[in-house]
Amino acid sequence: MRIRNVAVGLATASTLSGAALFFYSASPKEPAPDALAAASAWIPESPKAPRSMDAKFIRPTATRKERAPESRSLPLLTVSAPEAGLPEFEPSAVNWSRAIAPGETLDVVLSEAGLASPDRAEIALALGTEYDLRRLRPGHSITVISEANGRPRKVSLEVEDGVRIEVTFGEELATQVVTPDPDIVTLAGEAVIKSSLFNALAEAGIPARFAVDLAQMLGGTVDFRREMSGGEILRLMWREARVGGERIAEPDLAFAALDMGGSLYEVVWPEDGSGQATIYVGGELLRIFAQPVDGARLSSVFGRRTHPVYGNVRMHTGVDFAAAQGTPVKATAPGRISFIGRRGGYGRVVEISHGSDTMTRYAHLSAVPDGLSRGQRVAAGDLIGRVGATGTATGPNLHYEVLVDGRPTDPLADERLAEASESELEDTVTLARLLAARALLARKLDPDTVLTATERL
Fold it and tell me: Span of the secretion signal (predicted)?
């Protein structure tokens, strides 16, 4: 019964719906407005492909007459850099230094500094390009600056006269010679001779080595053993080269005045380092003498002696000056080179002719300057060679001879060389030197001043 009622209801609903659709379609219709029709017919266009970025951009023009406000870019935030960069830190270095002891070699000292064998060989080669390592002496010092790993950074060899040879390690090995610029000071002192000239200088605090220089200058004029009775007064003035208040070289005599037996002997050395000294007695020029080797030790005099090599007694025809290998040798008087070469036991020799009857001979030389030739004229004090040990010699020294008419004479007593030297100097020049030396010595030894006061030249 219930199913039959549902079927009747569905049939009635479909009959009513069909009737409504019939009346709607059959009723008259009004046309739609144009705008509504156009809108209903609009179909959206297909999207266009985007333009490439390099297409020219056209700024749109403003339609308003008022001035558009200016656009200002905001200032960039700046960060100030620190005034100083970050500190640079070098690897830590190790400093090692000490003096060379007697009997030591450079390799032994560098080995003690902890350097490896290849580094030691390289350092020796570099130092040897600027300094003859055979001249190393006790007292020379070595300074080694090494990296923490033991590799050398800098090696310095300090030798005589304050000179340093430095080897620096880097991309390339560099070697340089550093020479100090010394201050030259003048000193003066007074000594009373009681027993010997050497002892008198030592007691007065004056370099005792000056006794050798005075013996060279006055040996042929004054007999220091026989003519001195004691109480003689010797006044000296000398020059020293100093760096930082310390003496870096052997001092050089400038003036000597010896009052002996009523006679005043005076010697003036020039400032040019030529060693050409002038000797006066009582204010009158006696002779001029240039030392062949400055500051050397007179190791053997003229006369008979026991030969140091052969052991027999024979005549020593000159005087010997002991000095270091390579020390400069200078002509003692003006003349002309008459011979350069070797002569048996003399070794390498230079001979100079001083007129027709006088000749000087310089033997055992290690070298002769390039360009020095036979027939060349030289002046007193000119460099003619260097001290050596060629020929029959027990060590480096200069054998110096003076021959007159071919016969050896005592170099410290012969006066003929003075004649050749005096002709080259005017009396007014030598007198001016003497007066200037006297005046300076007087100021140095004035009782109101310190005896060892210094004065810059």
Answer: 1-19
- Give 388's DSSP letter: B
Q: What is the pLDDT of residues 290-338, one digit of tens each?
A: 778 876 777 777 777 676 666 767 777 788 888 888 999 999 888 899 9
Among residues 252, 242, 341, the alpha carbon closest in space to that of 291 is found at: 252
Longest CA–CA separation in the chain, Å: 185
| Rounded CA Rg of the chain | 52
Range with lowest mean pLDDT among 54-58, 98-102, 260-264, 429-433: 54-58
Q: 154 and 188 in contact (C-beta within 8 Å)?
A: no
Please give the average per-residue pLDDT across 383-401, as a whole number. 90
pLDDT score at 24: 47
Q: What are 165's two structure tokens?
A: 């040879």
Helices and strands: H and E segment counts in the chain: 8, 25
Tokens of 271: 């400032």
Average pLDDT in the 249-273 region? 84
On the question of pLDDT at 365 being above 80, the answer is yes
Specify the long-range contacts of residues 222-229, CB closer than 8 Å, at least 24 apart.
222/258, 222/260, 222/265, 224/196, 224/197, 227/260, 227/261, 228/193, 228/260
Average pLDDT, the chain: 77
Return d(Cα 400, Cα 321) in angstroms, integer: 8
Q: Which long-range contacts (CB under 8 A, 24 or more apart) does 211-214 make?
A: 212/295, 212/296, 212/297, 212/298, 213/253, 213/291, 213/295, 214/253, 214/256, 214/258, 214/267
φ/ψ of residue 83, rounded to 5? -60, -40
DSSP 163: -
The C-alpha atoms of residue 177 and residue 175 are separated, in whole angstroms, by 7
Ramachandran region, residue 197 (left: φ > 0; alpha: ψ -120 to 50; beta: rest): alpha
| Range with the largest mean pLDDT of 43-47, 51-55, 170-174 | 170-174
Structure confidence at residue 392 (pLDDT): 83
